[in-house]
Design goal:
Helix content is 19%, strand content 28%. The chain is globular. The termini are far apart. Helix 3 packs across helix 4. Strands 1, 2, 3, 4, 5, 6, 7, 8, 9 and 10 form a 10-stranded mixed beta sheet that branches. It is built from 5 helices and 10 strands.
Amino acid sequence: MKRIVLGVQYDGTPWQGWQTQPSGKTVQDRLELALQKFTQGPVATTCAGRTDSGVHALEQVVHFDTHLSREIFSWVRGLNAFLPPSIAVRWAHELPLLADGSEQDNFHARFSASARTYHYLLYNNPVRSPLLEGKAGWVFRPLEVELMRQAAAHLIGTHDFSAFRAIECQAKSPVRSMDQISIERRGDLIVFTLRANAFLHHMVRNIVGSLIYAGNGSKPPQWIAELLQQRDRSRAAPTFMPDGLYLAQVAYDQKWQLPQQPAELLPWL
């Protein structure tokens, strides 16, 4: 028995999120269907973190267990032959599976992860762009990046993020450690990069929505600190659109030697 780890990239626009649903219109459903066709049998997958409907992934990490022996490049080429254009396996890696080992001895896509990085791509222009439809969020009012940076600084560190947590979130604790938030303007595009040990349901989209309030002058930067202290979701901005959200990279210990790729948003950015 062995554990195969995959780096999967997808455009979330046509899919109802990662997690399997009765409709079958999810990334997990299509990946497991491709695995079934390639291996001639049912295969269950586990991912690093579920993404919502319309959310993209530059590098989602997935694992599954199998008795089959294949060359590494065969997992990539073979699965891609059965996947739609919006989903692709970018790399594969084989690890031993120790039946009598502890959780630390065996790689796990979710539990072995030490950090997650997300990008949010925002188009800031008075007129929407049809070329960015489904690929970027849109705000037509002018935004001041420096004000958003000042607001984001309050989020760095370990906090109770209840104010940015979806009501349906199933996490046992709202406490997370935010390592980095960077905000860069590139012409009419603003790129938010957030890195934390883990994220709550809708946490990134809720944070981006609140930072936009600071950027357009609706709220002062200090308002973000007040939201953290109040721990009340109803006081923060509404959940922002999923279009511009990208799961960029999941960090793991180097001992697993995963062939991960740089978390570049898009080649032209």
